[in-house]
Amino acid sequence: MRIAIFGLSITSAWGNGHATTYRALVRALARRGHQVTFYERQQPWYAAHRDLPQPDFCRVILYDSVAALGRGVAHGALAADLAIVGSYVPEGARVAEWLLAHTRGFTAFYDIDTPVTLAKLDRGECAYLTPALIPELDLYLSFTGGRILDRLQRLYGAQRARPFYCSVDPDEYRPLELPPRYDLGYLGTYSSDRQPKLEKFLIGPAREWSAGRFCVAGAQYPNTLAWPPNVEHLEHLPPAAHARFYNEQRFTLNVTRADMVASGYSPSVRLFEAAACGVPIISDDWHGLDHFFSPGREILIARETQDVMRFLRELAPAEARALGMRARERVLGQHTGEHRARQLEAYVAELTAEHESSPRACHAY
Fold this sequence. Notes:
By secondary structure, the protein is of the alpha/beta class. 38% of the residues lie in helices and 17% in strands. The protein has 13 helices and 13 strands. The strands form two sheets. The protein has a seven-stranded parallel sheet, with helices on both faces. A six-stranded parallel sheet has the order 10-9-8-11-12-13, sandwiched between helices. Strand 1 (2-7), helix 1 (18-31) and strand 2 (35-41) form a beta-alpha-beta unit. Helix 1 packs across helix 13 and helix 10 (269-276) crosses helix 12. The longest helix has 21 residues, at 337-357.
C-alpha cells in the first residue's frame, strides 16, 4: 500500500511518546513492503531536538501550515491507498477535512490519546478532531480498547472503531548487560495528573530510603519541583538512550494519566518499551491492565508507597529478573511494530472487502 500519515512527530521524541510509536509502526510497514510518507507540521521545539531527522524507512515531508497542503506540499497523500491523521496534530481537524475532500483512498484517525481526546470533545476543546468528522472517517484506530470503542461507535458515530495499541521495536528496545545505576527509575514527560502518583511511588520511597538511588527522565517538569537529593532528574533522553536507561534500573515505574485510568485498557508506549528491555515494572493499577500483563507474574502492582518499598527491598533479584523476562516475552509475542503492521493490513482488507461488496459502505477508494 501507499500510506500517508499526518502525525505529531516522527523526527523528534522531545516531550512526546508519539515519535517512538510511529517509528515502530512505520519501520514494520516498510519491512513489509509498504510505502509510507510521513507529514509533520514544523514546530520550533521539535526542530531544535530532531533525533531522527531523516528516517531510512519512510519519506518525511515537513509543512508549515494547512494552507501549504493545498498548495501541493501533500499532493502525494491524495493518491495514497490509506491516509491517516493522528491525535494532537496541529489543526488536525482541518487536515482531516482537507483529506476527506480530496483523497481517493481510505481515511483513518489514529488516536494515541483516546480518553483525552473524548474528554476534550465533550468540553468542546479539541483542536485536532471534531465530532462531525468522526462518522466521515473510514476507520478510527484507538490506542485504548475496551468499552470506549463502543462509545465511539454508539455516541460519536464512528463507522469502525478498532483497537490499535502502541507498539515497540524489539531491535531498539532489548536487554543489555549493564550494572544497575538506579534502584527505581521513571521515563515520562511531566503531567500534572500523573505527578501525584510519581510523588507516591517514586519521590515518597526516595525520601523514605535515603540510601536508595532514583531517577526521573523527562521534559517539562516545573523548575519549582524540589527533588530529593537521591533523585537524579534528566531533562530529556533521546530514544537511542532509552534502552540503556531502562537496563540501568533494578525496577522501572509506570504511572498512568487520570483519563486513561478512568477508561482502562490504555497501555502506554513506555510500558511496552520497558517490558521489551526485560526490566521488572512496578505499575499503578487500572482496569484492563491484566489484558496486557499478568499481575504478580509479569508486572508488579503498587497502590501505596509501602508496596514500592517492599518490592525494592524484599523481592529477590532472580525473581525480579524472571518477572521482567516474562513481560518481555509477552510484549514480543503481541505488541511489536510487526504485530501492528499486520493488524493495520487486516483492517484495510476488511475495508476493501466491504467496499467491493457495497460501494456506499465506505469512503471512495
